[in-house]
């Protein structure tokens, strides 16, 4: 199985990414020479990690009919240079639930099931934690 997306230039500083019927703009902030029409690629990488993890977490919640709702993620990437990259990424998970043990179990399951987390883990210090 493969996943394929397309990215094409649509202005001097902006790209348009397409996956299936969905589109997203990729750009730089004005202070870095961009038009600020979309997130930078690094920001999208963090959003992609969050989206992948959240999708797996919500599927696990639904399949167990768990009383977990209002899930929120705060994702922070620590940057280093030479070459520029994330050296560590922290995903802080919060949710409304009376069953913290169930939430902990489902967070671990979602982490293991997330394609993006599994891809990034060998390259960066990746940590999921409940708040």
TrEMBL record:
<keyword id="KW-0575">Peroxidase</keyword>
<dbReference type="InterPro" id="IPR052924">
    <property type="entry name" value="OsmC/Ohr_hydroprdx_reductase"/>
</dbReference>
<keyword id="KW-0560">Oxidoreductase</keyword>
<dbReference type="InterPro" id="IPR015946">
    <property type="entry name" value="KH_dom-like_a/b"/>
</dbReference>
<protein>
    <submittedName>
        <fullName>OsmC family protein</fullName>
        <ecNumber>1.11.1.-</ecNumber>
    </submittedName>
</protein>
<dbReference type="Pfam" id="PF02566">
    <property type="entry name" value="OsmC"/>
</dbReference>
<dbReference type="InterPro" id="IPR003718">
    <property type="entry name" value="OsmC/Ohr_fam"/>
</dbReference>
<dbReference type="GO" id="GO:0004601">
    <property type="term" value="F:peroxidase activity"/>
</dbReference>
<dbReference type="InterPro" id="IPR036102">
    <property type="entry name" value="OsmC/Ohrsf"/>
</dbReference>
């Amino acid at each position: 199985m493969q996943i394929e997306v397309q990215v094409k230039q649509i202005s001097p500083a902006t790209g348009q990414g397409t996956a299936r019927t969905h589109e997203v703009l990729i750009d730089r902030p004005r202070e870095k020479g961009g038009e600020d029409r979309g997130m930078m690629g690094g920001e999208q990488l963090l959003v992609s990690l969050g989206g992948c993890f959240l999708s797996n977490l919500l599927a696990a919640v639904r399949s167990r009919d768990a009383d977990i709702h209002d899930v929120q993620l705060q994702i922070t990437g620590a940057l280093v240079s030479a070459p520029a990259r994330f050296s560590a990424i922290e995903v802080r998970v919060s949710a409304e639930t009376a069953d913290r043990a169930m939430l902990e179990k489902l967070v671990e399951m979602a982490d293991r099931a997330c394609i993006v987390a599994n891809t990034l883990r060998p390259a960066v210090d990746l940590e999921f934690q409940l708040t």
